Amino acid sequence: MQKIVFQLNGHSVEALVEPHWTLLEFLRDHLELTGTKEGCGGGECGACTVLVDKKAVNSCLFPVLETEGCEIITIEGLMTPEGGLHPLQQAFINHGAVQCGFCSPGMLLSAKALLDENPHPTEEEIRLALAGNFCRCTGYTQIIEAVQSLGAYEVKEVSVMPRGEE
Amino acid sequence: MHSFEYLKPTSLDEAISLIESHGETAKFIAGGTDVITKIKEKKMSPHYLISLRHLPDLAGIQRDSEGILHLGALTTHRMLERSALIQKHYPALFDAVQNIGSVQVRNVATIGGNICNAVPSADGVIPLLTLGAHLTLVGPKGKRSLPLKSFFLGPGQTLMDHGEILTEFFIPPLLPQTSGAYIKHTRREAMELPILGVGMGLSLADDLKTCLKVRIGLGVAAPTPIRALQAEEYLTGKEVNTETLTEVGRLAAKETRMRDSIRGQAWYRREMVGVLINRLGMISLERITGTKK
Lengths: 166, 293
Description:
The complex is a heterodimer of chains A (166) and B (293). With 166 residues, chain A is an alpha+beta fold. Chain A contains five helices and five strands. In chain A, strands 2-1-5-3-4 form a five-stranded mixed β-sheet, covered by helices on one side. In chain A, strand 1 and strand 2 form a beta hairpin. In chain A, helix 2 crosses helix 5. The longest helix of chain A has 14 residues, at 104-117. By secondary structure, chain B is α+β, with helices and mostly antiparallel strands. Chain B has a five-stranded antiparallel β-sheet, with helices on one face. A four-stranded antiparallel β-sheet of chain B has the order 11-12-13-14. In chain B, strands 1-3-2 form a three-stranded parallel β-sheet, covered by helices on one side. The longest helix of chain B has 24 residues, at 266-289.
């Protein structure tokens, strides 16, 4: 096993990992952060999307040893400092963008990566940013509307909270 | 997943000495979107993965004072997609990389990896062929450069020796009045491998009508990505219009070695070569002259 040190949802983490683990299995099976989902395991569905140094990546294909020194945000890191919902999560609820919820963690993080870089995206830009996140339930319209609703005004920077801390 | 050691050399020399000592049990890994997928599908089972991510100066997009474009092999498709230089001056490459996989894939997957994976459909390869790209390999026996068009031997097979690392592409200076385009013919808008991929790099004479030089690249048209050399020769020196482009398309289709594939039968894809070449010609003219055709 090898030691890695990285930032996870705003908190410094030190862990022992096997070199052949993917980031996804490390998060789910060893850190028990099960918000990130495995859909296809092959980098095609986006259910495993997490943010590494502000960039959306498929954690099912990301070697765990490459997280050394990185800043990782998972869906668990999206809540406000008071423990409330991120504006994106509230928008998804308001617009009916969640049905079974399996794609939602990945969708939310891809949307966050987009809005952090481009606060007022066009519909086309939203579609391109979310093209790697598949949803079998909603037909995507409500998801796109939810993201658009946040583009309509300035999104305040929220600091992320590690799990289990006030 | 099959277990392996994951090594992170910090210099080319260290990477090469690692692969020499581990031999066939080791494989290089860049972004990993192809390598990890293959390991999961049990298409490869290396005991050692040697990461190229921490080798310095292998990622970057830079045009030197002579006009030669240097693309580091570790440059991600996302970096290429976001580059103003690529969008403006190498639009065929932009057309291709912005539709490879998804944002998640492009953030991690590298142009070098795309070429080394060497599938006949490789979207990264075709526009580089239309730009006359060369590549540099560094290995135990030293450094060598090759033209990209000679690099492929068959599906997934290249001229690379086992211990070699692809370090960069270089693209010769663009002639004036040059542009190009790439069309990825797909069933869906995104997250799709091409039914057919066609690219064109076109340079016009000062009259803005006559073709001075053209390169045409085709993907999923043969066991490797190919150039349509006879079609290119035909167009050189002629006016670029619908009539000549139709003949270019006909000649290019004859140069393909298509077989029926899971994403489209050979007869259909041969027909589409002509259709796409006509469109590529019009788009390239439009991009060079700045006027709608």
